[in-house]
Structures are given as C-alpha cells and as structure tokens.
Amino acid sequence: MENITAEYMAQQLELMGEKALRAARELALLSADAKVKMLNSMADAVEAAMPEILQANAADMNNAVANDLSSAMQDRLRLDEGRIKTMADGLRTVAQQSDPAGKVISSFTRPNGLVINKVTVPLGVIGIIYEARPNVTVDAAGICLKAGNAVILRGGKEAFNSNIALAAALDRGGQAAGLIAGAVQIVPWTEREAVQIMLKMDKYLSVIIPRGGEGLIRTVVAGATMPVIKHYKGVCHAYLDKSCDLESALKILINGKCQRPGVCNALETVLIDRAAADVLVPAVFKTLCENKVTVFGDEEFRKYAPDAEVLAEEQLFNEYLDLRISAKVVDGVTAAVEHINFYGSHHSEMISAEDAAAVETFLNGVDSAVVYANASTRFTDGGEFGMGAEIGISTDKLHARGPMGVDELVTYKYIVRGNGQVR
Amino acid sequence: MENITAEYMAQQLELMGEKALRAARELALLSADAKVKMLNSMADAVEAAMPEILQANAADMNNAVANDLSSAMQDRLRLDEGRIKTMADGLRTVAQQSDPAGKVISSFTRPNGLVINKVTVPLGVIGIIYEARPNVTVDAAGICLKAGNAVILRGGKEAFNSNIALAAALDRGGQAAGLIAGAVQIVPWTEREAVQIMLKMDKYLSVIIPRGGEGLIRTVVAGATMPVIKHYKGVCHAYLDKSCDLESALKILINGKCQRPGVCNALETVLIDRAAADVLVPAVFKTLCENKVTVFGDEEFRKYAPDAEVLAEEQLFNEYLDLRISAKVVDGVTAAVEHINFYGSHHSEMISAEDAAAVETFLNGVDSAVVYANASTRFTDGGEFGMGAEIGISTDKLHARGPMGVDELVTYKYIVRGNGQVR
What we know:
- By secondary structure, chain A is of the alpha/beta class.
- In chain A, about 45% of the residues lie in helices and about 20% in strands.
- Chain A contains 14 helices and 16 strands.
- In chain A, α13 runs parallel beside α14.
- Chain A is globular and about 65 Å long.
- At the A-B interface, α10, α14, β13 and β16 of A face α10, α14, β13 and β16 of B.
- β16 of chain A pairs parallel with β13 (about 370-375) of chain B.
C-alpha cells in the first residue's frame, strides 16, 4: 500500500459518510420484501464469489503466518468453504426474520383530534469497528441492512484482503437486487488514523458498535463523538445459596466456567453462601479442580479448601477468559448482590437456589443486563435468546441492554396527522 | 460563599454519587404505591415550605436585579404562591401516572425450557444540568423519582437559593414518606468546575440530561463521559405544498411562528412549493407581515414578495427564537424533504397538503423526531402528547426521541428462570 495522508483519508471518509447517509435515506423507504430479496441475493453472491474470497483470505493467512499471529487469531481469520457457506446462510436467516422497521409501537388520538403514531424507523448509518474476524463483515452488514440501515465497516488490518473481497461480493449481490450504492462500505485503509477520523463522523454515523477486546472498545469510547453501544468485559458471577440443589449448581458452575472460557458470558467469580460454606466450598473446589480450573479463594473459602490459591482483592475485578476463577464466601444473598453490583461488569449473573425469596432478592437486586436463576450465564447470546442474528451484547443502559439483534438497530419517530390543529 | 477548591468539590461530589447510587438501588425496589405516597408527600412539603421558598427566591431576585439580569431571565427565576402551587400540583400529577418500572415488555419460553422476561427497570442515577429555572428542580426530581431513579441536580447559579430551599422541602416531604436519603441531591456549588467534575462521574450517573440553551448543551456533550440525551436546537420547518388548503396552512404557519416564538418547537423556516409559488408566496408574506414577522426570502421568494428581506444561505440553519423567519421556494415535496434533512435539526417539521401522496412522501422521508401533516409543530411537547410530565425533548436517535416522559427514564433487564439448563 502507498503512503496515505490523514488529510486524504479524512476527505475520502467524508465522501463515504455522505454516500452512506444518502443510501440510508433510500434504504429507509424500501419495503420489507425488497430487503429480503436484497439479503438473499447477497447470500448467493457471497457463495458465488467463493474462489475470490478464498484467494483473498489466503493472502491474509500468509501475512498472518509471516507476522507470527497467535493460533487463536489465525483460527478466527481462516475461511474455508464451510465457513463461507455459514456466512451466506446467516444472511438468509437474517432475511427471514421479522422486519424491525415500520412497526407501530403505539397509536393514540388526542382530545383535539390529532392522531399520533409512534413508529419504528432505521437508525441511519451504523459504524462497526471490529478485529480480524471476516465473518463479522458479513454478519454485521446483514443485520444492519435488515433494519434498513447503511453501514460503514472497519475491520482489523489482518483481515483486510478477506474483508475487501467479502464486501465486493455483498455489493455485487445487493446491487443485483436493488441495493443502493454506498449502503455497505468498507474503510479501505488499515491505518489507525482512519479509525480516529471515523469516530468524529457524528454528522453521518448515528451510532458506533465496536466488537472486540476491551482495548479496542476503550479506544472507541474515548474517541467517539456519537453514541457507542458496547460492553467492556464480562465479569460474570455465580452465587450458590445455602438452599441450592448442589448437583444442579455444580453442573451450571462448570458449564459457565469451562464450556467456552474465552467468551464474555463465561463465569469469572463464584460466591458461596456463608451459611452452607462448610458443605458448598469443598464440593465446589473439588469439582472445579476435576475440571482443571485454578481456583483463587479468599481467606474464608480457603478455610474449607486449604489447597486453593490465595486470592488478592483486585482479582475480584478480573475477567480471566481462561480456566481460572475467583472464589469468595459471602453473607447470604444480600451480600452477594452487593458484591456483584460493586465488582461486576453488569453483564450476566446467576443464582443457584431453591428458596424463592432468595431468588427474587437476587433477580431484582442485581443491576446487570441478564440475571439468571438456576441456569448457565452462557445463555446470554442472541441466538440462545431466539433473536436470530446478534450484533453484540450491551452492558449499557441506554437504548439497548443485553444481547442485541435487529430489533435494537431501529429508533422511532412520531408521525402526527391533523386537520388544521393549532395551539 | 467561601473559596472552594476543585479537589474538595471532587471529593464531595464522589460522596454524593455514592450516596445517590445506594439510594437508586433502594428506590428500584420500592413498590409503585410507595412512590405515589412519596411524591404526594413531597408535593405537600413544597406547599408547606412556601414561606422559606419565597424568602430564598427573594434573595435570588435581589441578586438578579443587582446583576442586571434580563427581564426574561428574571421572569423565569421569579416564584410566587401560584407558581409554587403549580410545582406541587405537577408532583401530584406525576404521582398519578402509570408506573414505568416493572413492566414486562416481552415474555417467552425457549425450547430448552428457559423462561425469559424482559422487564423495565429504573436507569439508576440521572444527572440534570439546567439554567436558572427553579421549577425544573421540582419537575425533574418528580419525574426521575417516579421512574425509580435517584437524581443529582445542578441548576443555574442565579437560582441557587431557590433551588436549595426547594430541594430541602422535597427531601423533608420525601423522607416523611420513606424516601431514601440521597435520592434527590443538589450540587451545592455554583462554580463551573462542579459541572466539569459531574460530567466525569460515569461510575455513578447512567445519563445526563441537560436543559437549556445550545451553549450549555454543547458544554455538557463535549465534557460528558456518560450518555447524554439532548437537543441542541429546534430549526423547525413548515412546507406548504401546492395542494394545501391555504387558509388552514396560514393558520398553522402563524401559530407555529408567533404563538410562542422563543421555544424549540416554534417554526424557523417556511418552504413553498414552486408549482404554486405565485399564489402561495404573496399570501404567506402578507400574513406573516400582518403578524409582525420579519421575512427573509430567497431570490425566488422575493420574485413574488419583493418587499421581503434578502436571505443569506447560512440563515437557513438559524434558530431565530423571535419574530423572524427564513422563506424559500423549493421544487415540490421531494426537494422540501431534502432541504429539511440537510438544514434542519431533526426536531419537528410540518407539511400542509391535501394530496395524500405528498403527505406520505413527507412523513416518511423527513428524518426528524416528530413529523406533522396539517398541524402545528407547537404540539411537540410531553403535555400535548398526553405524557403528563416532560423531562425534555430529544433529537437524538438512541434510547429516546421526541418528547420524553417518565417512560423514557427506564431501561430494561432480562430475567431468566431455569431449572438447571446448561449449554
């Protein structure tokens, strides 16, 4: 790539923004059927472009090997026929979902005869900033378009060639079915300045959704002049009440910690009710050890499980994302709620209890996006919630909280019909 | 007032934030009935404190006269028995509204048996930053509390004594009916640094709602690290289509411009359909002049109304807030929509037309919070929409758009009940 100046990128990004906004205004007027056809045509085009996409991805993979990328990153970057087919099918699934735009949220007639309809409408242009995962290019474009939004995508530089090839296929397929040019655009520069410029484009972008690690998200939040929907991390908790069914509690605990430890809805801390610590702690410690989990326990936990590692207080804020867990004894459900609200990240938390009063105290008191009684926190996921496609999970409180699907990518407007009313 | 250091204010504001967050967690658990009683008791306390409030307000008014405040500002600042009674009645009205928290938005059972409820819950702590209008102190506190939120209020320094007296009354009345200490707090410093500190308190404040002029709002947006719900200004448009009923159109136009020109939902620009400019322009100009409006017309407008003032293009972005208006001839409804989307502020816009197709093009195409057919933009108001109390009007697209009442001051959480489900 030649050397690009920030000034040139700013000019070009401005043009991309204008184009996206024009496209968004047209997209907002498309019928639900037209959007379905467009998304299906894009799915076909992604499959038809399989050779070019694989070729582009091979170039990215060569660079990845040359640059010694971690095997986890290489795995996320790698495309094959099956993965491309999965992306295309993802577009078809999104196409079939209920159209989130044009829904009447409420409708009322005022005493003066004004008829007021509150109707869902697309947000406009959505910016997505993400890491080297080419599948996000297709998934995010599909979800945004389904809701009638244009999208500007900025993926990780390691996936640059793959993203360009995927976006070209999306564009080709979309335009064959009436997609407006500019509705899906990839930022064609891998320079970091391009992100900083994009974060100031509040004139065009209604919202930015960052997807990736905490560092990326903090960069976006610090720089963005438009709203950001995000979660920083998932410090998810399990609380085992004295009333819990121990067998069920242990099964949920191991699922939450071990089934896929590297994701945001995996467990990071287990809290044990003091009233049954003598029974619960040894059982919890034994089962975690059997599942190869390294347990860091506080002083009281280690009274009943002396072989646990020593827990430092600041570890209670940790998102380990691997087979480590913090463990602490607390004074019943009220103390558990307080602990979670202080140390947690407002993502997903679980109580294991048979006592209905303890369950209600927990579910009402914990200030998190998703609160569970007797089920694994791993269910915090758009697919598991039945949303179809998911664009991410929000731990914010404004606009969207928890898993976000197409229904979270619209706003509303008030349409008021009168016959000459004045104040 | 003694000299207060920024460091001291930061420490004290931190304590206020902690206190507010604790209060918010308790408020969220209050029953709907308890909140009604609390608000009614606060209303009674405001009335009972009439002598102290009037005395405090007299001190503010003396300062206002000494500092030569404009008569408009003095009018907004002045309290009398009637105005205090109106505030108290406002609290009683809010008390009677439907409780926005604890509503089940949706409820579904997944194939694996998980029961998922999406339930409205309070936002937490809300920050309100406003100018020298003591009524906002009471109105905003009432609306925030009704939705189960704690509130930290920072009013204009000119109303300082009035606000302290009002907040003391609210606190007294609230605590007599179970209000948690810290649920309503006034920032007790008039220094500008106090606002800047408050804007960084995202650990405690879920959202800031600024109320006032564009300068105040830009300061808040620039400094805030938490979400802000706002509107900068209201550059509201009327478009008169060739199909309009001229008599009705003129009546709505004059109402929008003249009934209360200093507010955000008043008209600032009138657009005239070229196809009927020869008839519409002279009639519009004559009626506006008769109502003492100064009209700035573009070249084409002035062809049919040569006595209009010359319009400079940049005036098309103006929010005059007085008896001036921009006037321009456009090429039909499509051009009107494009003009509004480019020059407007996404607040409230109106079409006057009998042609149903033109009406739909306008209502669907204009990207504003509230769009009207054949009615005055002056109806963009929580009261006029039947929301009861209003905390402001949003031209943002995330979370809340248009007039905001108690229903906009909640978020939701997912409450999931299982019996041992794992992935």
